[in-house]
Design brief:
By secondary structure, the chain is of the alpha+beta class. It contains three helices and eight strands. Strands 1, 2, 3, 4, 5, 6, 7 and 8 form an eight-stranded antiparallel beta sheet that branches. This is Pyridoxamine 5'-phosphate oxidase family protein. It holds the Pfam family PNPOx_N. Keywords: Oxidoreductase.
């Protein structure tokens, strides 16, 4: 442990409080990146075990789950119906021409269909342009429960997050 200004060792409680505050700041940044993303990359598992990546339009539910409005005509939807394990990659804005400086979060989760009309409204509030096809019979709402995440805030700045870090209330107070 680092010494304080007076030369003494900080208390274990202070170290735990500092670690908790850091985790809360990281959780807030992860939530911001996810909420601000108008699109993300969804990775699903094919029948043969090979991954499949697709562009999707996410929204974040009040409980921290990720919401997707998906068509059964899409390969990734059929794959989620067979195996709900998936990953989402959210990208922020790059700081410069080096793509490795782009803030990003790769979230691992478990997807399941949801018939919750409030969650559908939450998704549509984030993506109002989709209203014309929101009631097509082949579309349905999917809710992805976060299990873990890796957030990279630039080159060499990787942070592991737990599911609890991605839930509301994990964020630092404003």
């Amino acid at each position: 442990m680092a010494e304080t200004e007076g030369g003494e060792q900080p208390s274990e409680d202070a170290a735990l409080a500092e670690a908790g505050a850091r985790r809360a700041r990281l959780a807030a940044e992860a939530g911001r990146l996810m909420r601000e993303a108008s699109s993300a990359t969804l990775a699903t598992l094919g029948k043969d075990g090979h991954p499949h990546a697709a562009l999707v339009t996410p929204a974040v539910a009040p409980d921290g789950a990720v919401l997707l409005w998906l068509s059964t005509l899409s390969e990734h939807t059929r794959q989620l119906a067979r195996d709900g394990r998936c990953s989402l990659l959210f990208l922020g804005a790059a700081e410069d021409s080096n793509p490795q400086t782009t803030p990003r979060i790769s979230l691992a989760g478990l997807a399941a269909r949801s018939d919750d009309p409030a969650l559908k409204e939450a998704w549509l509030a984030r993506h109002p342009y989709a209203a014309p096809y929101a009631d097509f019979a082949d579309f349905s709402l999917w809710r992805i429960e976060p299990r873990s995440a890796l957030m990279v805030l630039g080159f060499g700045q990787a942070h592991r997050l737990r599911a609890a870090d991605l839930m509301p209330g994990a964020e630092a107070p404003a």
